[in-house]
Design a protein that fits this description.
- The complex is a heterodimer of chains A (111) and B (115).
- Chain A contains no helices and eleven strands.
- Chain A is mainly beta.
- Chain A is globular, with a radius of gyration of 13 Å.
- Helix content of chain B is 0%, strand content 52%.
- Classes of the chains: A mainly beta (111), B mainly beta (115).
- The interface between A and B is medium-sized, with 27 and 25 residues.
Amino acid sequence: QKEVEQDPGPLSVPEGAIVSLNCTYSNSAFQYFMWYRQYSRKGPELLMYTYSSGNKEDGRFTAQVDKSSKYISLFIRDSQPSDSATYLCAMIIQGAQKLVFGQGTRLTINP
Amino acid sequence: DSGVTQTPKHLITATGQRVTLRCSPRSGDLSVYWYQQSLDQGLQFLIHYYNGEERAKGNILERFSAQQFPDLHSELNLSSLELGDSALYFCASSVATGGRNSPLHFGNGTRLTVT
């Protein structure tokens, strides 16, 4: 079993839709959670970073963490074609030396 | 722009050869991480350096090695290359050793093709 599970998709939605991306994890020691966006032929770009259960909002993006269920989500409101990319969840244990990534979900927003 | 610079952007080489990938971290970042990304494996952690010292190794092959220099740039050396080494190699940097207040910022990678 992988430490972090993420549905690879692909996910295709119309412009303006609300997108929900999810990851589950097995190690309860993970404390810090990140979402990265990766465009084709580019490096992962940090979108959201959170370390507590609950919601964190940044513009059209909301990151949600439920540590009791070992489940994290990223919501994108009013999705735009420019949001089309691969979204990767990542998490780390305090003091650990490596970020563990999910497989990534490929998202396409159709105009 | 993340501020992390990787060179070269593309490398095409033959099996059995050796290559060196270079990374310059963001200004002020002391940690450098190397990751390998392939279609079937996703992003796999290779190695982490902090202020010149190796701190952790992941799934890094013995044919691969890395170092971080006093000016904090890092190099990843890949030798005796095999077809399966073809992948995107990313460098990331952070202020400290990851975790609270120290997220990773990635460069745009080096695409290695072994023929």
